[in-house]
Amino acid sequence: MQLVGTWGQLLFPKPWKEFRLWYDEHKSNGKKPFLDGMVTNGWYKKLGERIWTPWFIKFIHSRGYFNIYTNFQNERALSVSHRDAGVNYGKTAGPDSQLLNRSSIGSDFLKLQPLSSLKWYDYCFSEVVPGRAVRNLNELGTVLPSVQREGTIVLVSLFDAEEMFIRNLLCHFEKLNTRNHIFIGPASELLYDLSRRGHPVIDADMLSKTSYSNSVKEAMGNAYVVEKCLELGYSTWVLSSNALLVDEGLLHDRIRSGYDFYIGESSGVLVVRSSSVTQKVWSNDVVDSIVSSATKNKGLDFVHVVKEVVELKGKMIKTVEMMSIGENTNTNTLFGDGKPVVYWSREVDSSIIRTKLEELNFWLVDDDLSCKAVVCHSSLR
């Protein structure tokens, strides 16, 4: 579980050293361990540097680490707080649990379960499932049902992605309560770190097992995922790495008309609704056509390739307006713009895009690229 305390904590040398180095660096730079939505903010404002728990919780949140809790019978424990009167308690409250003793230790006391069999939870006590990394089509069919919500999958491309924008996107997902996302991209430290933190991922290198360029691997991987989603009866929202979903409800509203395919012009957004029409259109030959077109037209992204192939089959695609930002964008004119997705050109310097997102209040990460806030939704508790 991620909600870690500092009482009764058994800290091994490596993570403790990592924390101390992180703490020293942040402290020397004048940073504070504030994490909106957490009770530790109030503790720090009241007690300041007299307690280090807010720092440790901020560190765990930043790194995406978890804490192992014991679960002995009758709520017994390996360590006990007697909660005597003092800094933390106005009057003595007595032990918070009972120590294990010989009579309460069973024969299986030292039998440790594998981490994969344990329940994992985040700060909101919502269950997370680390290690979901798809490497072939069979695994894809197994993982997608655990990802979908209300028959929809959000597929996010990590091709040509900058980590800070992906981390920021995750904070928006948390804010919007969008939990039906899955990432696809080449094997990388970022891809497998997302998997470790509980986000399902697809290793496009393993999925295609070809020497194609990344643009072709992206088209092929996305095409396979959409095809599998349609087989399972799911709609798919495809987002490129230079797009940011800021209002899921608005996007739902935009795709309520009778079309089966929607694109965001130049934004790398594609919506494929599950229907008998799309299942018929998106057959094996469409996947082959997408790969062939991507191979011939290396400058085209996946969405434009799909548009080209689907229109050749005589099907209409509805364009959905998105919000474009760039170097010369006046963000003051964009507030209340009513567009569900923000996107930008990869040609624009990333620092400029970050500044524009900050001006729009769409930049939700701190300097560690972790969310500035923990957002819990009542439906998840």
Characterise the protein shown here.
Helix content is 36%, strand content 13%. With 381 residues, the protein is of the alpha/beta class. The protein folds into two domains: 13-63, no CATH class; 130-380, Alpha-Beta Complex (Spore Coat Polysaccharide Biosynthesis Protein SpsA, Chain A). The strands form four sheets. It has an eight-stranded mixed beta sheet with strand order 5-8-7-6-9-12-11-13, with helices on both faces. A three-stranded mixed beta sheet has the order 10-15-14. The longest helix is centred in the middle third of the chain and has 19 residues, at 214-232. The protein is globular, with a radius of gyration of 24 Å.
Mean pLDDT, rounded to whole units?
A: 89
What share of residues are in beta strands? 5-15%
How many structural domains are formed by the residues? 2
Q: Count the strands? A: 15
Q: N-to-C terminal Cα separation, in Å?
A: 14 Å
Low-confidence stretches: none
Instruction: Tell me the overall shape.
Output: globular
Secondary structure layout:
Elements: H1 13-28, H2 40-47, H3 53-63, E1 76-77, E2 98-99, E3 120-121, E4 127-128, E5 133-134, H4 137-147, E6 152-157, H5 163-176, E7 181-185, H6 189-196, E8 201-203, H7 204-208, H8 214-232, E9 235-239, E10 243-245, H9 248-254, E11 261-264, E12 269-272, H10 276-281, H11 284-296, H12 302-312, E13 318-320, E14 323-325, E15 341-344, H13 350-359
Parallel strand pairs: 1-2, 5-8, 6-7, 6-9, 7-8, 11-13, 14-15
Antiparallel strand pairs: 3-4, 9-12, 10-15, 11-12
